[in-house]
Fold this protein.
Amino acid sequence: MKRHICFIIPSIGVGGAERVVSILANYMASIDYKVSIICLVKNIAYPIDQRVQFIFPHFSIKRDLSTLIKVIPYYRKAIREIKPDVILSFLEFYNEITMLSLLGIRKKIFLFDRNNPFLKEQTVVQTILRRFLYPKANGIVVQTKHAGEFISKRKFNSNVLILPNPLSEINKFWYPSSERKTIVCVGRIEKQKNQKYLIDIFFQLYNDGWVLQFVGDGSYRVELEEYVNLLRMNNQVIFSGISSDVQTLLSESTIFAFPSLWEGFPNALLEAMAVGVPCISNNCPTGPAELIKDGENGFLVEIGDIDGFKNKLFELMNNADLRHEFSKNCRNIRNQFSVEDVTKKLLKYIEPS
């Protein structure tokens, strides 16, 4: 067996980072690495290879000082017991806790810093901890060029790897339903994802036969459902909740729309393009511009340009030839983000020859 790699993440619940950990852990286990995942909450939303070892705490988790006091010795004890060769820690705030917990323990530690770095809201304590602890890590892994520049300029760490998210296995391909035309939007229903913007545009463009479908859940869902009710669009705007088979929904949709205000790396957009769905996206920081070549494999619209988004979406809704052209051109993205290539790049970084 090859070396022992340990992931540290709060849970494997629904989320972008959690999904990435599940993909990487499964693939590493399949190529004979010993893999462990240390969590704080027993919440597993993605399939995990039975060879992967889980470690969970024996105490309940809250985001307060009393929990922090428990987490530090929990992490230290877990790492000493399983003795991994490399530790991969995910998510801001928790990265600082990982580093604080493992001070004095000689292990190779790499921190995965996600989301848009220019929009993070951190407390003064978090900012101080980050500046003090990030340089002590063996390296920082980010998802985009902009995030890498942010880390380097602020001298958080000199060893930065830009690593996009890997794709899960793509087993569905775009074959839109002939019975109804659907604009689908996948993601957490939160203000950051900007779904109300898309509802307003769809309301202006609506013509008979089209449906706008939101796949996902979140704290903003009830407010948006009430808004749709006020617009009397209940039959045209659908909230279908979390799906266990997003690829099938994507493959049967007509268009994928992505109105986010910011992203770390847009997993939902990447998966839609890999399936071959014609896409339109806000050019938000950060991620969509690294996937979409405007007018070639999708539409990219500047944030706040509601007329631009509306006009491009209208064009896509009314031009079947353009939809098929975008679909053909965007499928090539599968090769750039395969789990094999992404993992190979990561392993070369954490295990240099």
About this structure: Residues 181-336 form a domain with the Rossmann fold fold (CATH 3.40.50.2000). The chain is about 40% helix and 15% strand. The chain has two domains: 4-166+338-350, 181-336. The radius of gyration is 21 Å.
